[in-house]
Amino acid sequence: MDKRTTTILTRITxxxxxxxxxxxxxxxxxxxxxxxELPVPASFALPHAVVQMIASGQAVDLDPLNTLFAQEDGLxxxxxxxxxxxxxxxxxxxxxxINDATHDRLAxxxxxxxxxxxxxxxxxxxxxxxxxxDPDMFSQSGxxxxxxxxxNYRDEMDESFxxxxxxxxxxxxxxxxxxxxxxxxxLLRQAKGAPADAPLGLVVQQMRLALGPGLCGSGTIQFTDxxxxxxxxxxxxxxxxxxxxxxAGAETLFLTRDERGISLEETAPEIFADLVRFGVAARERLRxxxxxxxxxxxxxxxxxxxxxxxxxxxxxxxxAVALARDGVIPRExxxxxxxxxxxxxxxxxxxxxxxxxxVIIRGINASPGAATGKIVLSAxxxxxSAARGExxxxxxxxTLPEDIRGMHASVAVLTxxxxxxxxxxxxxxxxxxxxxVGASGLNIDLRNRSVTVGRLVLNEGDEITIDxxxxxxxxxxxxxxxxxxxDAFNQLLEWADAVSDMDVRANADxxxxxxxxxxxxxxxxxxxxxxxxxxxxxxxxxxxEMIFADNAEDRKLALDRILPMxxxxxxxxxxxxxxxxxxxxxxxxxxxEFLPHDRTGLRELAETLDLPLSTVVRRVExxxxxNPMLGMRGVRLGIAVPEIYEMQARxxxxxxxxxxxxxxxxxxxxxxxxxxxxREVELVQNRVDAVAAAVRNDRHANFTYRLGVxxxxxxxxxxxxxxxAHSAFLSFGTNDLTQMTYGLSRxxxxxxxxxxxxxxxxSEDPFxxxxxxxxxxxxxxxxxxxxxxxPDITVAVCGEHGGNPESIxxxxxxxxxxxxxxxxxxxIARLxxxxxSI
Length: 838
Ligand code: PEP
Ligand code: MG
Fold this sequence. Notes:
It comes from Paracoccus onubensis. Catalyzes the reversible phosphorylation of pyruvate and phosphate. The protein is of the alpha/beta class. 44% of the residues lie in helices and 19% in strands. It has an 8-stranded mixed sheet. Strands 24-25-26-27-28-29-30-31 form an 8-stranded parallel β-barrel, surrounded by 7 helices. Strand 27, helix 27 and strand 28 (706-711) form a beta-alpha-beta unit. The longest helix is centred in the last third of the chain and has 26 residues, at 552-577. The radius of gyration is 33 Å and the shape is elongated. Mean pLDDT is 92; it is low at 1-6. The chain binds phosphoenolpyruvate and magnesium ion.
């Protein structure tokens, strides 16, 4: 054996040079167990470079492994050892090295049947996976199965089953290394974040027998519950079970004392005590909750593997916090260990992962959490259902302002159309309601009050469950887990805030939203969409009266009705936020969202406004636009009909005075939407200043305020330098900015987004994950130009992307002052901001 080849295989000893990047996580983990002097059978690590050599057909020297085959039982296992356990790998192969001679020896020690079963299982797996023979010829079982399998092998290969352990091993290694490079394996691991050329190491380990005399068997043990994260011993032990081979007298034992049956704790207390001791030591040394895989051979334990305990989101939070509290890991590490998105599962009800899922249809997971209710097909039916105390799910083609009442009365929302930023999606996230949109296989039949999905017909009143976290609609009522806003959750976020250097604010429109924002410890409101204050029925009428006014006098009357409502809204928000900054966006109503869409709606409106139907129809036609999202929205309305913004400015300033008299001093932030030219800002600024002067005069009071601009057109980003000269802050509205940068309708993109992502035209839905290359560049250009002109200007993001961990990292990197997202995403954003800061 030459010198070069001796280094390719490393026996895992306490001092061996084993590193994760070359040998993989499993090899490194086994070394740690060995260093702790735990009873790990002899193990060898093959680094990635060797695995690649084997895959490309080069012969490598496996001599050092001969010592393993020379042992009495002479069997080894081969396990994958990727850099990251999440990346998976080819399945473990057991019992490598068995041949006629070993088989005879085993038969004497553990009985003929057991020995036959072990040999048969290896011959079958070798024939199928290594020799690539037809699986149908190797599915035999029963008395003569082994002889038949060996005969079939010989007939097909024109040679006997290989008897040299080294040759068997070389074949197994080659097949595992090639499996890693297969296209399916690549795709699967890339979906889990692995790079295309992720390395694979392999571990060859001496095998112990878990069949035979005395206490024999195999099992796993962990000390934390995988679903709840509570400390609890779980796992199982199977007596007389060796890999897939089950011997005579096999039985399953509970680990701890259990009324349902016998336990290892009672049968073999010393083995149980050892396992507990190993578990405690592994937690401290490996700084992680581990699941230990072990074997017992005639009363002797071997630890053959250890894995991070698989865990739900709730368990992940509890485990990280417990490890930090016990001083096993520092607090920052606990903060880094929890995936921010995982917090979503703790904020809402969740379908118990242990239950069965009867999925009817899938859509876009627009707002997380799960809820069960009876199908209702209209807002009125939802309200009636709520009045009866029956939880209901509002199912609509898409939602309109009228539906907001129905949404309030429902426990979840499902729509056939729409994307991540459609009306239903944005509102549901704000309300914390589970919501699925764009479930395009859904067919709503209003006449028969039913919904069809393929051949399945569901009637109004049938029970369904919306899993807004996954996008699955389920039949019936699966078991649920309660939200877990517990001590561990709060502790983790407290540690996160302590290291974070970017603020997180909430997008909050109503007092209820603001209270949620406070509950989740947002550092202020970064976006109050004032038009959302008008979705309730009485207010909707006032708003429509204002929209329908066709002369200044009528409009003034309508605005006079609205002013006190707005003043009260703002006073409430200021009081709840207790001096924290509150950014109020002036009206940005896409008018079509406030107009009736069908005959019934038009008739109802005519009745409420006391106008002839024909007048209403004419006015709706006059106001209708071909492309309302690019029409008379935002500042355009503010400039065309200045009284609206003047009314809002007055309401804000009067509320500022009222709230400041009662509590903390309020410095309101007024934000102008959909700006594309500096002159728009100047015009609004002049009018708002004039209103401020008038209110100071009328109320004999003083106050200050900050006026800022929402950057949501590409032009505003490009001209941010000019615009900054008139602004105390700029907040990027990445929903509209994405829409306009791509020329992609927020409301209609759902129809083809799936196809686009599937065919990798876009790597992700850009309304969901910020497009850093395109829209992101506009953010950087805008921020840089604004800061060059006005170094002290505040720069922020308040589009839906503000709640997205990758986008938060991007904004942190660009030095943004804060991000603002839906109240229910604030905890996720706080954790993501902290991780970006560490
Ligand atoms: C935006 O466009 O990003 C935004 C926050 O405003 P809206 O979603 O209300 O248009
Ligand atoms: Mg916008």
